[in-house]
Design a protein that fits this description.
six-stranded mixed beta sheet; globular; four-stranded antiparallel beta sheet; alpha/beta; Rossmann fold; 10 helices; single chain
Length: about 240
């Protein structure tokens, strides 16, 4: 496989407070890679750095073989990196259609291409088509997550960074969202998945990295990580530790 994203020796901080230290990871084209860890482990911070929202203290970020460490976020978006942030962050007083149009800003001067991409999103998320004229703030949590995914897909990214897509959603809605995530990947989009539900993350991704207090403590195929005693004890529960071995 061809490497799409490569992070080396990344150190991230908010002000003087270091959050991540020496993070290195790789994602190949076509993969789903999971980042799991406890709250405060540095997962969301790592996604913010990849998207260009947080400059690193040290280390490098390469995308498609190009060093993008110093590139601003809008340039990374043009190259093919999209972030679906934790909490969805839709624009509540704009309609579903207007939110999607903002996601397609890189083709805003080509109405036919913008319309084509929006039709693709509506085909994947028919409920958004039904609510296209409705303000985003009036949607349910699951519908807002669909909109956040659809808005990101409007830029036709090569890499989709997902931050806690199941947060605050009912289990049946989570199942639907993860089906859509797998479908997006099957259509050729690589995915870096941060997810509080470690079981969902490890069942969805092919490989994973485990973060603890800002450092990678384990990595490898998800099947192997599910058998790792540290992962079982901390993220899958004691029952999994007895039954997954």
């Amino acid at each position: 496989m061809t490497t799409l994203l490569e992070i080396a020796d990344l150190e991230l901080a908010y002000g003087e407070v270091a959050v991540c230290r020496d993070i290195s990871l790789r994602l190949d084209r076509g993969e789903i890679v999971a980042l799991i860890g406890a709250n405060g482990a540095g997962k969301s911070t790592t996604l913010r750095a990849i998207a260009g929202l947080l400059p690193p203290r040290r280390g490098t970020i390469a995308f498609g073989g190009r060093d993008v460490t110093a590139l601003p976020s809008y340039e990374r978006s043009r190259l093919g990196i999209a972030l679906v942030p934790e909490g969805r962050r839709v624009f509540p007083f704009l309609t579903v259609r207007e939110n999607l149009e903002l996601g397609g800003f890189n083709v805003r001067k080509d109405p036919s291409k913008l319309r084509q991409r929006m039709e693709g999103v509506f085909a994947m998320f028919p409920r958004l088509s039904e609510r296209s004229g409705q303000n985003a703030g009036t949607l349910s949590g699951g519908e807002q997550q669909m909109l956040a995914l659809g808005r990101a897909m409007m830029s036709e990214p090569q890499l989709l960074c997902l931050d806690e897509p199941s947060l605050g959603l009912a289990p049946i809605v989570v199942q639907d969202i993860f089906q859509k995530i797998r479908a997006i990947n099957a259509n050729g989009t690589s995915i870096l998945l941060v997810e509080q539900n470690a079981r969902y993350a490890l069942e969805t991704a092919g490989r994973g990295y485990v973060l603890q207090t800002g450092s990678v403590i384990a990595s490898g195929a998800c099947a192997a990580l599910k058998r790792d005693p540290r992962v079982q004890e901390a993220y899958l529960g004691r029952i999994a530790a007895r039954t997954d071995t």
